[in-house]
Structures
1.
Amino acid sequence: MSWLLSRESRRRTSTGPVPEFAGKMKYRLQKGVDMRKLGAANKFLNLLRYSATLKTLIVLALVTVVLGTFSTVLAADRNTASKETPLLSYPVAVDIVYKGAMVVINSAGYLAPAADTAGNSRVIGVADEQVDNSGGSAGDLNCRVRSGRAFRFVATSITQAMVGNTMYVVDDQTFDDDNQDHGIVAGILVQFVDTTTGFLHIPTPGVAAEVLVTEMSMDVRNESGSTMEDGDIVYVSHYDETTDRMVISLADGDAQGAAAVDLWVLRASLATATNGVAYKTHREDAQDTSSTTEGDAIYLSTTAGDWTKTSPIDGDPNGVARIVGRVAVVHASTGEVEINLVAGGLVQIGTNEVQDSAVTTAKLAAANEYISTSPTGNGLGYGTGAGGAVTQATNRTTGVTVNTLCGTITTHNASLAAEASADFIVTNSEVAIGDVVILSIQSGENGGGTVLSVQDVAAGSFTIRVHNGNVAAGTAETGTILINFAVIKAVSA
């Protein structure tokens, strides 16, 4: 020690200022560093500096440790670190929120005590303090909310078998396995204490891993002009930028577009020009489920917004058979159905043709082409529901209106002399200027030489000429002629 100090002193007098490393050496000596350990460390560092093999071995050892940390299956207890979810603060509605209460976001976007009320969100946590905003305006005060853990609450009536199931709000301190009237989710039952007590896990809002598929919901708006009822099945018709909500309409099994793929259900009535929430599931009670068996499918009805026990498309070529839920309880007046628009599905479209592999290469022989090879059947044309009928009034030149792609026109029976013609206009909103109109006499002509032709085609109309082809002084046409017409859509380019 004295030798080192004297050596340092000699260095200071012989070289002037003390080198930096010498200063550090003095500091270490003053701190009582074991010089033998320091020397061993220096030797190791020198060996590491010049030995590539040693460097490689150290790197391999580190890699082994790291990989083992991430891939080794536990064989003993592990001290796993965790962090508590921080408190979140929300503006409070005009209400009193008590510390320890389950809380939700109401339809206006403010924190409120949990309640089975239409428009409420699922429970977002538990109030960490009491906040009395009953005398103020919504948003005047904020309340801290805790979530992401299990909380002990009162239950109406639960069992051990319900652990893991979704529970629903009864009030701000009570939950139950029944979804009540509006199905406000309280959380997941994670521990059964007794029939009236349990622990609910309430996830932190916005944590994707906590989302329950069976409780999917969407903020919506009704702009239909009428009140939509609890249990109505709806679809998104458009979007309202002002309210930032999807606008809904009643789903319908036989209306084009109204049997949309993505359906939702209301758990409460929703007045027109009002915001609300639509869901993917709903339990309906007090229903007539007679003549069914538990588990039978229920279908989207042709009555807008409703469901039906039987497939609605029998005899309807435009109908859609779509399963929207299942029968839960069979009874003529107190039956129950479980509407589930996640587990349902499209079963059939129309009465024929577009079914299991029915559209094949035998019918679509080539791209952009339809070739029928069957000598019988319906052939090419329009089906029931596509046609219309109209009767001409006053005389044979009186115009008629029929807004369908095909149909029958019954003419007036005024006398049409031989070699004479009578033109009349058919107003038809389905006709475009490039279309082709085909005519034929179904019955009724008695002149023997009556001929039909199309004289003009315009956007929204075409002109029919009835001509008596008998020679002069021949038989006059006095029959009430039934004219069949069909419009073939066509373009010029």
Note: The longest helix spans residues 52-71.
2.
Amino acid sequence: MSKIGSARVFDQLAAEPRRDPGVRILGVSPLNALAGDVERNRRTPLAGIRGAAARLRPPPSGAMPGRRTTAASPRHATPSTGDAVWSWTDSRFAQLLGERGATDLATKAVPFFRRERGPEELARLFAVFRVGEHHAVITIGDWLKHTEALEVKEGFARLIWHEARHTIIWTRRMRELVGTRVVEQHYPDPRRVEGGASPEYFRLWDEYAKADSLARRLAYIYVVDAWAGFAYTACLECIDPVTRWHLQTILADEGFHVSFGEEMAAKYVTGGKEREELAREEEKIVGILANVTDGFLTSEV
């Protein structure tokens, strides 16, 4: 039914109201046309999100004062992101890895995240993801109280909201996959999961919570969340459509986190000692994440 034809029908319906019940209008739309409408309605807002994400992203140089700026170009090692609005390869994390390191990461870890899993295995993997999101809510909430710069406070508040949303998303998805009773029985605490992650994964969040300066805290935000962006992007290729839809939202959030962290570090971490502290923390986090990745490869998820 064309837009003009449908308008005439509704005009007639409004002009000649009937009180008795019954069907008065039946619209038939070809399946191909309907699919096209759905696709267009999906892609239009995504295009707007991409534009917003691009505006939030720091300049490609990404260079913070006094820091090395060896650019990595590991795009050939990047999983295809489809409609993802942000790529981890644009991040400081990718610069720290270098092209060879990024290629090695993708070669090792992408097959793991793309592995076909049943509902129970997916629920366990999502429980592991949820641990990180929930720990971030708690830790950044503590940081918020001790942060002076108003725009950093505002960014931290937004991160808390995002991480809480992600925690809820993973919890709901787990319940949809295996049922509420199973989740309550096997995954009752979002802070931990039994038999699903290596000790290094929990060490990461313990170290995250120990960050006691703005430089260290921002490093954790933009390095760890870029790694999370890599993991979530890899999952996009083989995940079910419902989870994929959620991952698009999460990836957009992770892109903001990384851009925010890098931008605030460039603005507020300016002293020589602060920059040295930032560089040391970056290297430390990258080392922990390498162990976390290896732990995933040998885990039960």
Note: The radius of gyration is 23 Å.
3.
Amino acid sequence: MNYKTFSTIFPIPEDIFKQLEQFQDLLNIWNKAYNLVQKDSLKEFWTRHVLDSLELYLYLKLWQETYKETLLYDLGSGGGFPGIILAIVGIKNIVLVEARQKKCAFLREVCRVLRLEIPIYCMRFEEMVFESSTFICRALAPFQDLLKLSNLPKVSHETFHLWGIKGIGIEKEIEDGKKIGIDRPYKVHLGQFREGNRIIEILPTVR
């Protein structure tokens, strides 16, 4: 995808687009050795990976108008989606959490080349000591398991707030969850950029 086409979908300065292209080049190189993402998905880098990640942009931009200094943890950062993409386009205070060493090495290299100052924790998020209770993720876990993340150590159950990028399967996951019981408020937002995308937002119980 070229800059002109991309900017009609998601307007950004050309230098930011060039950073995304640099990221794409690094992903293509590293993926040959480490299988960071499915090989076939590289052909859909802009639609399947970049624009999927940007589904969260408007929600986080609005949220950061109020919570300017709050850390935003990307759980299971993997190949850098959505955390790296969101950081490139200007979302602040992102922290990457990824358990696999090879993927952490890739994330560090991306941050070095693109000069992104993003903390990276190479560990299971169940072992993290979090400094905030705000999270993002992409295809991390079923809905019921996302709800359980509010019980992580040092996470406030009351102020826990999560945005997750999901597909249409989230609707069945929620229906299954209702049979067991859902103990906190949530919203499902339609995606902007790809048919079938959904954003699950698990809300704080207090503000």
Note: The helical segments are 3-9, 14-34, 45-53, 57-66, 83-88, 101-114, 143-148, 170-180.
